[in-house]
Design brief:
seven-stranded mixed β-sheet, GNAT_dom, Aminopeptidase, transferase, alpha+beta, 206 residues
Length: 206
């Protein structure tokens, strides 16, 4: 079994949309326009490809986006810098095999050289103790709760401190920027970034 975690490509979008909308109640449905927003704007949008098939994906956004998710807005109101995991979806055939942990390790590696916090939410209605335990063992702490809309589910808002960030900021981000190596590269997408902190974090050595 050959596994690759890679940036999404445009021709993956139909498969990603179908996977998202087959995931069940704990993943909000998307339409093609919403998925295109993520394709154009998401700072992290990677898929897991196993033997040529899309087995899962994870989408994450940094601060400063015009994304209208109530949970993303909550983090924007409380923290100046963060990476927000909007959704992770694993195909049924590949669940309970550790692919979620692989994705979380990957997005953690992306986040810890750019921001001090990795954030997300988990649904409390319906509550999935496997999901709650997964995030707790990965270092997330609850920092708040809210209801998504007047009749939406109650969610637990989670944050994980990234202790490596202070070193990276002092050693690289406050100076010449991150080294120009592939594993530190930013995803190429069409959003225009006006946030100076993010431009600094994405800087490259001359």
């Amino acid at each position: 079994m050959a596994l690759a975690i890679r940036d999404v490509r445009e021709h993956d979008l139909d498969a990603v949309l179908a996977l998202n909308n087959a995931a069940g109640r704990t993943i909000l449905a998307l339409d093609a326009a919403q998925l295109r927003f993520f394709y154009d704007r998401a700072d992290y949008f990677r898929v897991a490809e196993i033997d040529g098939h899309i087995a899962g994906f994870l989408i994450a956004m940094r601060e400063g986006s015009d994304y209208d998710s109530p949970n993303y807005r909550w983090f924007s109101e409380h923290y100046p810098q963060f990476v927000y995991i909007d959704r992770i979806v694993i195909a049924n055939a590949y669940r309970r095999h550790g692919l979620g942990r692989i994705f979380y390790c990957d997005v953690n590696s992306y986040a810890e050289v750019r921001v001090p916090l990795l954030t997300c939410e988990v649904f409390l209605e319906p509550r999935d103790d496997v999901v709650v335990l997964f995030h707790g063992t990965y270092g997330f702490q609850e920092v708040g709760q809210q209801r998504m809309g007047s009749s939406g589910p109650q969610v637990s808002l989670l944050a994980k401190e990234l202790p490596s960030y202070a070193y990276v900021r002092e050693t690289y981000l406050d100076k010449a920027g991150l080294p120009d190596v592939p594993w530190l590269a930013e995803r190429l997408h069409s959003s225009h970034d006006n946030n100076p902190q993010r431009r600094l974090a994405g800087a490259r050595r001359p």
